[in-house]
Amino acid sequence: MSPRAIVTDIEGTTSSIAFVAEVLFPYSRARLAEFVRENPEAVAPVLEQVRAEAALPHLDLEGCIAQLHAWHDADCKIGPLKTLQGMIWADGYAAGAFTGHVYPDAVAGLRRWHARGVPLYVYSSGSVAAQKLLFGHSDAGDLTPLFAGYFDTAIGAKREADSYVAIARAIGVEPRAILFLSDVIEELDAADEAGLSVTLLARDGAAAADRYPVASSFDTILPQEIDA
To answer: Are 135 and 100 in contact (CB under 8 A)?
Structure first.
C-alpha cells in the first residue's frame, strides 16, 4: 500500500550529518556572541527564554551568552538556542555563505512523491525556521514548495511515540498510512510504536538494523512509484 503521507527527518536522511556538524554549527557558534550583542531588540525574547530555561531570572547579557555557548557546545535541543541559531543561519544563507545540503537522490525522491500527490512533511530536532531555511536555500534551489508542513520538538521529542501520534493527528492521516524516514533507530522505534510505517536510511556505510526496511538512498524507497 502506498503511503498517504511521508514524514522525513533531515540529518542523515535528506541531508548530510556533516553539513550540520561542519558548516551550520561552527557558523552559529562563531557568531553567537556578536549577534546577541549587536541585535538587542531581536534577541530580547530569546534571552527571556534563556533565563526561564536556566531558571535564572536575573541572568545578565553576558551570562545569557555564556549559557547559550554551553548549550551550543553540548548540542542541547533547547528552544531559545535553536531559535537563535536559526536567526544566525538566516543571515548566513542570505549572504550566500553556504547553501543547504540535500542529497540529489533525496531531491529526486521528494519531487517524485510530490508529483504523485503524496503530502510531504519534515520532522527534525532543528527549529521549523531552520528547516525552512535549509530547504529554501538548498543546493538544488528552493524546495519548500514540495512540503505540506514542518514539525520540530515543539510537538514532542523524536524518540517518544506520543510525538508521532500527535503528528498523525495534526496532518489528519491515520498512523499506519504514514511513512517515516530516519537514520536513527530510536526514532524509528518510537514511530513504529505509534503505528507508522518506517524505513531506515543507512547512508555512507552507516549501520543498519534487521527489524526495519533499509534504504541507502531515496531511489530504493517505494520503488514501485519510480516507473509508475
So the answer is: yes
Radius of gyration of the chain from Cα atoms? 18
As a whole number of angstroms, the distance between CA 181 and CA 58 comes to 42
Same-domain check for residues 107 and 189? yes
* pLDDT value for 206: 60
Residue 228 pLDDT: 42
The three state secondary structure string of 69-128 is: HHHHHCCCCCHHHHHHHHHHHHHHHHHCCCCECCCHHHHHHHHHHHHCCCCEEEECCCCH
Number of domains in the chain: 2
178: which residues sit within 8 A by CB, 6+ positions away? 3, 4, 5, 6, 7, 164, 167, 168, 171, 196, 197
| Cell numbers given for 40 | 538587542
**Same-domain check for residues 36 and 141:** no
Predicted TM-score (pTM) of the model is 0.88
Q: Point out which residues pair with 182 in neighbouring strands.
A: 200
